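seq as requested:
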Amino acid sequence: MLDHIGVRVSDYALSKVFYTKVLAPLGATLIMEVTVEVTGDRSHAGFGTEGKPCFWISADPIAPLSNMHVAFVAPTRAAVNAFHRAALAAGATDNGPPGPRPHYHANYYAAFVLDPDGHNIEAVCHSPE
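struct tokens:
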């Protein structure tokens, strides 16, 4: 249903480094960057897999930020654990350690962190392993 989503960040350079580290355990990389010279107003960084950026951050140090929730698919529970470790090492705040969340469904395994702007970032695996 969704092609891509964008999140405003107050410190573009910090957030670009943060998401590069945090999304690596999930197999995502920085795919594309569109600079202020091209857009005329702000820089954007697109992360994704297989050459397709689907998660974008945009520099917006002036506009008020409204915190949002984004959940990334993890291929395994081990990837959820690695995401959580990488996020904490990159400066995230723990918002729910890796573990089962059976109130969603029997195989829901996730971890939650708050990014530098307070966005609730989740990695979730729907597999029993």
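The beta strands are 5-9, 29-34, 44-49, 52-59, 69-73, 93-100, 109-114, 120-125.
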